[in-house]
Specification:
Length: 206
């Protein structure tokens, strides 16, 4: 059962709304420090990180700049978006973005620019900045988001979710609608046609 926003399963496609953004949620995390030129520059890079014999993430990019002394690597788009696959026991999330920053110590991944992703269960997420925490295998953002699955689409600002997007919490300015299959999602954060913002803190069942 797909559970959207406060992890409470309801009938059909549940929507449980929260009206606050906790202080620990940050869409992309702090920006990397201004640094000297990269220690290493690589092209057509394919990176795989494992932990305990299982994959954490897999990344492909046209270009990678390794800042070893500062402890991060920046992967960027030249002709194709950066491709990222995140793994956890909760599921798998595959996405594209214009840029990805990897913390070489924590293995956290920070995505920026046109982030579009889909879980292995078919839930789609769109936003402009997204952070994946390797320790908890969770996604976070404080940016406008669009989350959709089948005919259900929800928009808002601020998100925390499992990697597989089976449990998703959206925090502010939430709107929801049932779309026809031919209706394409609007940009993240845009008001839904025919939808008004839902009051925070209420449980809604379609």
């Amino acid at each position: 059962m797909w559970r959207l926003m406060r992890w409470v399963p309801l009938i059909a496609c549940p929507l449980v709304l929260a009206g606050f953004v906790p202080s620990h949620v940050s869409g992309a995390g702090p920006s990397p420090p201004v640094s000297s030129p990269p220690d290493i520059t690589l092209r057509q890079i394919h990176m795989i990180e494992t932990r305990g014999g299982s994959r954490l993430w897999e990344l492909r990019a046209d270009r990678a700049e390794v800042h070893e002394r500062e402890g991060y690597t920046v992967l960027s788009r030249v002709t194709r978006p950066v491709e990222v696959t995140l793994y956890s026991t909760q599921g798998q999330f595959t996405c594209t973005a214009n840029k990805a920053t990897v913390d070489l110590t924590t293995k956290d991944v920070r995505l920026e620019g046109g982030v579009v992703g889909r879980s292995d269960q078919g839930t789609e997420l769109r936003t402009e900045a997204l952070r994946w925490l390797a320790a908890s295998r969770r996604l976070q953002t404080d940016q406008p988001v669009t989350v959709s699955r089948g005919g259900w689409l929800s928009r808002g600002r601020g998100l925390e979710a499992e990697t597989g997007l089976e449990q998703v919490r959206i925090f502010q300015n939430i709107t929801s609608q049932l779309r026809s299959p031919a209706t394409a999602p609007a940009p993240a954060g845009a008001p839904a046609p025919g939808s008004a913002p839902r009051p925070a803190g209420r449980s809604l069942a379609p």
